[in-house]
Specification:
The complex is a heterodimer of chains A (about 60) and B (about 400). Chain A is about 20% helix and about 20% strand. With about 60 residues, chain A is an alpha+beta fold. With about 400 residues, chain B is of the alpha+beta class. The chains are: A alpha+beta (about 60), B alpha+beta (about 400).
Chain lengths: ~60, ~400
């Protein structure tokens, strides 16, 4: 599973980081960046889906 | 004028679709019902009041406008009778009143101060302040959870960030009243209020510029955009924004959350038993009781949802209405404190996302944790005594609750 954050859409709401800190880093300006090139380790798939489903800006895409 | 005497628009509303007025007290009192009615009958309402204003209520329309910085300017974000003075792209309180491309520079200056890490450092002081407030309330049966509790917390937090005296909290709340609540008062009254705000800020800024510290105000005095120091107007506008934007908004969010718990004993009991659920519940309170409606001014004629918006028209951006759109949220009018999928827009959408959102969440969490730890059972004492704010920030202003059990 891959998690991708669209930098054009991310506005730094920080919802993904609150839900899945294992998958997302936040920079000094609040913008989210995927860790490990977005590869979702086994066991974190539910968190990845929730991170995407809670983004107010629809900035996160998940590909299986 | 005290807050209990806030003047509202004189003329009663005849029809919310064609003559709405967000500064009538019945608007905030009945907002979810008004939005629901508009959503099915006329999703973009209009009024001739304020020189002409629009009120979209669907998530799709609110987000489309929030994302469209070409047709909509942020030069003024509080709908009122006075027309905005043209101040693009900086506006009176950067970055909230700024447009691209300047907006990005003004925003990036202050974003790092509000990162999750930076605000987390404030938690012990916020908790201590909440505990002290509760201790000061004492062993009484009825507590005003808005007036004796929620309203004091955000002012103390921002005072700390700007290194201003916590004792100035009443002054800050008067400034908030001037900027956000007094939209229907006489222009002379409002001007006097803004004059007091400017005098206060000028005094504090002059003092600080001779004695710089580690606080956010000192930072702004030394900050640069495009290699130039900020103008005195920019510093003053940003400090005014920081002072005003976080106070009645967070106060409203805490108050609305406590009002929910005071009327939903099962939810209260669950949060007392499962405090780890509080962050999820807070997102739901933010969705269902989002306090902030923003506004834009039409910069270029545009049609939204079939409505012809003309240059100079006001447009309200009711994120709280978008948050209850059934097209985006299941059981949108139901408050589900363990709602897992919740992409609410309480902090706005697009480039003007609330800069203080991480701080607001922290303050809400600590305030609610401390209140329910001390008062694990409480209920509204007299629902006729509960009053709501007037204007674009929505939340309870009087909230007397009876303490049923104390810890």
């Amino acid at each position: 599973m891959l998690l991708r954050i669209n930098q054009e859409k991310c506005q730094g709401h920080n919802r993904c980081h609150a839900i899945a800190p294992e998958l997302v880093n936040i920079d000094d300006y609040g913008n989210a960046h995927e860790r490990e090139d977005g590869v979702v380790p086994p066991g974190l798939e539910v968190k990845a889906r929730l991170a995407a489903a809670n983004c107010p800006e629809f900035a996160i895409d998940i590909t299986e | 004028m005290s807050r209990s005497e806030i003047r509202q628009s004189a003329e009663p509303v005849t029809d919310w679709a064609t003559d709405f007025d967000h500064a009538r007290s019945e608007y905030n009192e009945n907002a979810p019902e008004i939005w629901a009615q508009l959503r099915t009958e006329c999703p973009i309402a209009h009024t001739d009041r304020y020189g002409g204003a629009w009120l979209p209520v669907r998530h799709a329309d609110v987000s489309q406008i929030a994302y469209d910085t070409e047709h909509f300017t942020s030069e003024d974000v509080v709908v009122k009778w006075v027309r905005p003075e043209s101040s693009r792209p900086i506006g009176g309180a950067p970055p909230i009143t700024s447009d691209p491309p300047f907006h990005r520079e003004a925003r990036r200056l202050i974003l790092p101060a509000f990162s999750p890490e930076k605000v987390a450092a404030l938690e012990p002081e916020i908790r201590q302040f909440c505990r002290q407030l509760i201790e000061n309330i004492g062993n009484v049966d009825v507590v005003d959870a808005a007036d004796q509790y929620a309203k004091h917390i955000p002012a103390a937090v921002i005072a700390q960030m700007l290194d201003l005296p916590v004792e100035d909290g009443d002054k800050f709340r008067d400034f908030v009243h001037t900027a956000l609540e007094s939209i229907s008062e006489d222009q002379e009254v409002r001007q006097l209020g803004f004059q007091k705000l400017d005098e206060y800020l000028d005094l504090r800024i002059t003092e600080r510029s001779q004695n710089l510290g580690e606080d956010l105000l000192s930072f702004l005095l030394q900050a640069k955009i495009y290699d130039r120091q900020l103008s005195p107007e920019h510093v003053r506008g940003t400090v005014a924004l920081l002072l005003i934007a976080g106070i009645d908004t967070t106060w409203s969010a805490i108050g609305a959350s406590l009002l929910h718990l005071a009327t939903h004993p099962k939810d209260l009991a669950r949060l007392v038993a499962e405090p780890e659920l509080i962050p999820t519940a807070i997102e739901e309170f933010l969705r269902a009781y989002a306090p902030v409606t923003m506004a834009r001014v039409v910069a270029k004629d545009v049609e939204i949802g079939g409505c012809p918006m003309k240059q100079g028209d006001w447009v309200l951006l009711p994120f709280p209405a978008a948050n209850r759109d059934p097209q985006v949220f299941e059981n949108a009018d139901e408050v589900i404190i363990d709602r897992e999928v919740n992409r609410h827009a309480a902090f706005g959408l697009g480039i003007h996302r609330c800069i203080g959102s991480n701080l607001a969440r922290l303050v809400m969490r600590v305030a609610i944790e401390e209140f329910i730890a001390k008062f694990p059972e409480f209920a509204v004492a007299d629902s006729t005594q509960v009053t709501w704010s007037v204007g674009q920030v929505r939340g309870p202003r009087r909230l007397p609750v009876r303490v049923i059990r104390r810890a």
